[in-house]
């Protein structure tokens, strides 16, 4: 049933793949026909017969030459068309598997490694289709036909050609596949390591430069690169070995066939005698058979690496997302949403102590809550629980009176406007960056929210206002500006629960006050969770809770903790 469903979903691609194989086969058979008819034509022409007796063969040579070219071109066209469609779907498939992992840190896979998988491994799977599967099918079919043709010309030659093909085509291919698989593991790991290190080095270049550590990192990068080069040499050896095996088998078989053929030609008269023309056809047919299988050893050496890539992609898809949607989610109730944490404990994978331990809190609709606590106390983890980015190990999150485990996590997220500690500025215009939160927001609304967050003077200085490009190739944005762009998105989203993680960490006192007042005003009617280290202005909130070592401090301790935080600030 599942196979039938999959076949239905991939019908277009399967059809194109079948077309590629058929056209490729037509090309290969034309190549075989071309060699056989050329051989016949050459040997026959050497006997100087009347030209008219050659005209059909001349036309056939022209036809096969044209058909071979067209067949090969068609195979590439249809094969790549099918493969590029598969590629696009495969990248989306990989991305869909990555998406739920992101908040939990990609399941421990490094960013550069993920990049290598999304780009390199997906391309390798494409090679498996275009460079391995199609030539293997067309090669095996046309080589079999070549054997049949050789057997038709001289029956004793058929087992020799078949044996040579099995040796040079099949056994050598199996050998290169096995050896290729072995080096593929090292190669894939080395390549992923190089990409991961380059990504990390580029991201951390300012720190590395500042501490004069760039040389050391560059040296270790070149060690990694050396391991990569060694693995590449291993792969080249396998490919070269495969080609040598094929060439030896082809040469040996050709010598055997020539010897057999010469013996048959020399035999005196009778039905068993081979004419010179047949002998030529036999030799060229043998060449054609090996020509058809020529791409196989190299393709199989690559297949080893390609299968490794496919396995890495499967492993990525097999990573468990931190939060699973329920099989039959309940709908979220309409109207204002209350949120509750009931003795929630969260432990990150590989961590012994929990990041949150038995934390309870009640957030009725419209409540303004400030969460304070020292670094590492679990404040950001609390925000991730509210966003359904992490699953509590014990306890539960209740949204609108329903256990969140019974709700679609995406539906819960739709209710939350979130500004992380370090919001990302995407490559694109300022307007596009803000409209991520609400695509239909008008230009006036975008400008108003920027001004309300104290970004008016910054906006005035931009070269082309809302159309100004931000990100790597555009206007550079400072830490405080980026943070306020994140808050602007959260305000524009107009959702019933607003969660802001350290919204004023990069801001001076005066701007901090402007931002706090704006947020409190703009989110009136919504519930607000304001996570902070800073204690100024907390009296504007309905409730202040403190976290320490993942636990919620008792209300009497909150005052004490406030004193500690205040002292640590001065
Ligand atoms: N993805 C993660 N994997 C493993 N441990 C994590 C992860 N994220 C956070 N932690 C750990 O969980 C604990 C709580 O982290 P959290 O980010 O929630 O603290 P915080 O109070 O927000 O700190 P800060 O004020 O410095 O941002 C810390 O010990 C942290 O190292």
From TrEMBL:
Regions crossing the membrane: 18-41, 47-67, 125-154, 160-179, 243-265
Gene name of this polypeptide: cydC
ABC transmembrane type-1 domain location: 18-296
Name of the protein: Thiol reductant ABC exporter subunit CydC
Compartments, as annotated in UniProt: Cell membrane
Organism: Aciditerrimonas ferrireducens
Keyword check for Transmembrane helix: yes
Keyword annotations from UniProtKB, A to Z: ATP-binding, Membrane, Nucleotide-binding, Transmembrane, Transmembrane helix
Positions of the ABC transporter domain: 339-570
ATP-binding recorded as keyword: yes
Membrane topology annotation: Multi-pass membrane protein
Main location: membrane
């Amino acid at each position: 049933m599942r196979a039938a469903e999959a076949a239905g979903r991939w019908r277009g691609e399967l059809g194109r793949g079948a077309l590629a194989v058929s056209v490729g086969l037509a090309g290969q058979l034309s190549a075989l026909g071309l060699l056989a008819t050329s051989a016949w034509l050459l040997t026959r022409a050497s006997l100087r017969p009347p030209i008219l007796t050659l005209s059909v063969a001349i036309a056939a040579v022209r036809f096969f030459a044209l058909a071979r070219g067209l067949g090969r071109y068609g195979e590439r066209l249809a094969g790549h068309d099918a493969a590029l469609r598969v590629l696009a779907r495969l990248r989306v498939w990989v991305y869909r598997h990555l998406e739920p992992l992101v908040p939990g840190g990609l399941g421990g896979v490094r960013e550069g490694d993920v990049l290598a998988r999304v780009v390199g491994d997906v391309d390798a799977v494409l090679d498996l289709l275009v460079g391995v599967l199609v030539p293997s099918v067309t090669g095996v079919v046309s080589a079999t036909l070549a054997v049949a043709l050789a057997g038709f010309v001289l029956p004793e030659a058929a087992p020799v050609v078949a044996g040579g093909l099995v040796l040079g085509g099949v056994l050598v291919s199996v050998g290169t596949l096995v050896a290729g698989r072995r080096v593929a593991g090292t190669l894939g790991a080395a390549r992923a390591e190089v990409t991961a290190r380059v990504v990390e080095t580029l991201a951390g270049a300012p720190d590395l430069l500042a501490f004069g550590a760039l040389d050391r990192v560059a040296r270790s990068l070149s060690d990694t690169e050396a391991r990569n080069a060694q693995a590449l040499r291993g792969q080249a050896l396998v490919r070269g070995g495969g080609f040598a095996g094929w060439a030896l088998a082809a040469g040996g078989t050709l010598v055997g066939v020539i010897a057999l053929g010469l013996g048959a030609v020399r035999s005196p008269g009778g039905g068993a005698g081979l004419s010179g023309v047949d002998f030529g056809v036999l030799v060229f047919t043998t060449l054609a058979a090996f020509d058809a299988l020529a791409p196989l050893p190299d393709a199989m050496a690559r297949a080893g690496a390609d299968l490794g890539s496919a396995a890495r992609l499967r492993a990525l898809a097999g990573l468990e997302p931190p939060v699973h949607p329920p099989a039959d989610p309940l709908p979220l109730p309409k109207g204002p949403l209350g949120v509750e944490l009931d003795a929630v404990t969260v432990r990150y994978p590989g961590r012994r102590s929990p990041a949150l331990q038995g934390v309870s809190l009640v957030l009725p609709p419209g409540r303004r809550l400030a969460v304070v606590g020292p670094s590492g106390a679990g404040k950001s983890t609390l925000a991730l629980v509210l966003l359904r980015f992490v699953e509590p190990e014990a306890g539960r999150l209740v949204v609108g009176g329903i256990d969140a485990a019974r709700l679609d996590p995406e539906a819960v997220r739709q209710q939350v406007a979130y500004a992380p500690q370090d919001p990302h500025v995407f490559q694109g215009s300022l307007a596009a960056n803000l409209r991520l939160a609400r695509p239909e927001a008008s230009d006036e609304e975008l400008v108003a929210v920027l001004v309300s967050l104290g970004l008016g003077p910054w906006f005035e200085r931009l070269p082309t206002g809302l159309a100004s490009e931000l990100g790597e190739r555009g206007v550079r944005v400072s830490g405080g500006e980026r943070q306020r762009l994140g808050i602007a998105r959260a305000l524009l989203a107009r959702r019933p629960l607003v969660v802001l993680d350290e919204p004023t960490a990069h801001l001076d006192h005066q701007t901090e006050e402007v931002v706090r007042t704006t947020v409190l005003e703009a989110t009136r009617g919504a519930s607000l969770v304001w996570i902070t280290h800073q204690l100024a202005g907390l009296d504007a909130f309905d409730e202040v809770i403190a976290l320490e070592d993942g636990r919620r401090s008792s209300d009497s301790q909150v005052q004490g903790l406030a004193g500690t935080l205040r002292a640590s600030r001065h």
